[in-house]
Amino acid sequence: MSFDIDKLNQLVDAVYDETVQIRRNLHMHPELSEQEEKTAEAVCRRLDELGIEYTAGIAGHGISAVIYGRDRDHGVGIRADMDALPITERTDCSFKSQNPGVMHACGHDIHTAILLGTAKILNEIKDELPGSVRLFFQPSEETIGGAKQMIDAGCLKSPAISSVIGLHVESSVKGGSVELMPGPMNAASTEFFVTVTGKSCHGAHPSDGIDALLPACAMVSGLQSIITRRTDPAEAVLITVGQFHSGTKENIVSGETKFSGIIRALQMHNMEPLKAYIEEHCQATAKAYGATCDVEFSDSYPSLENDDELFELVRDTCREVLGEDKVEIKKKPSLGADDFSYFCHACKGLYYNIGTGKKGDDVPYPIHSDLFDPDEECIRTGMLTEVVSVIRILEEESKEW
């Protein structure tokens, strides 16, 4: 299919208003991770209206839909996450959240609406598509990683999905523009939990016990030496301690101290050494103070690494349909994590940002802000770039099917 950009722009324009309304309805009724029941119902109703085949109830409230093209055995995927955040909205928009303490402050309402709009357009031209398109309406991005669960449930099979793309809103990028990045874009993360055990005693007689607070403080202070002295300074790694709890009363030597934090690394090869260094450091420090400790790790998301071929293909496509001046190349990766990374490790993946910055707004509120107020023109940009990118990827990859 040699796509007609004017025709595709017309199709995007035709579905834009109703897609904006879908977004606003989703925005008014946000649901937290693992609780996206009503959101999933709204998505299913729309897919029913469009006559698109789907399976619901995957990984909780996830939905996997498929648009069959000429080749029903092979295809590409598009992902949108659906969950909201525990934030009380403070914007003045007429469609602000009606669920107290819950807000779509990360733009997942926009992601979901864009994918529904994209689905309508692709469904209208499905007979011209070289292959099929799998649509991932994914739950639990903000918590347990619904992407992995959907992959484990077999959503990359039947049709066999060779590549997956996804997008995310970004307020630092102007509306109407996109931002792409080659290679590693987001970090891998692992949470750690340390329990230091000593022996409590009266504060007037500290020699009768073993203070668990002192070695724990030394551990926290010393953790940064792992970054500065045991890790290549050219590597992007980070150790953050976010919680620290010790003691029961001011005149009692603490018998137990607990602290926890998170490790982030842009490259997966750094994660296991970091975990080993933390374990070694904490155990040795506890022993030096006469205490003991237990260290546990909980792996979160892997690194998000964009496929080089997909990057070049989508970048060139966006330049063609948006213009050179509307395509930005991200200079620095983020040490934040996103579970789209699971798709990048299961097949070829490409994640990119769509700008939501409004004209005249020099310092727009970022995602996760209770005042996050995106320019809805990003919906038009998102649909156009998804549709054209999918067509281009299908055209390219179908040569090998």
Plain-language structure description:
Helices cover 35% and strands 28% of the residues. The chain has 401 residues and is α/β, with parallel strands linked by helices. Helix 1 (5-28) packs antiparallel against helix 3 (108-124). The chain starts with a helix and ends with a helix. 49% of the residues are buried. The mean pLDDT is 96.
Radius of gyration, taken over Cα atoms and rounded to an integer in Å: 24 Å
Total helix count? Answer: 9
Relative helix content: 25-40%
| Low-confidence runs | none
The geometry reads as elongated
Head-to-tail CA distance between termini:
16 Å
Order of helices and strands: HHEEEHEHEEEEEHEEEHEEHEHEH
Judged by helices, strands and strand pairing, the structural class is alpha/beta
Provide the spatial order of strands within the biggest beta sheet: 1-2-4-3-5-16-6-15
Strand content: 25-35%
β-strand number: 16
Please state the average pLDDT score.
96
Main beta-sheet annotation: 8 strands, mixed
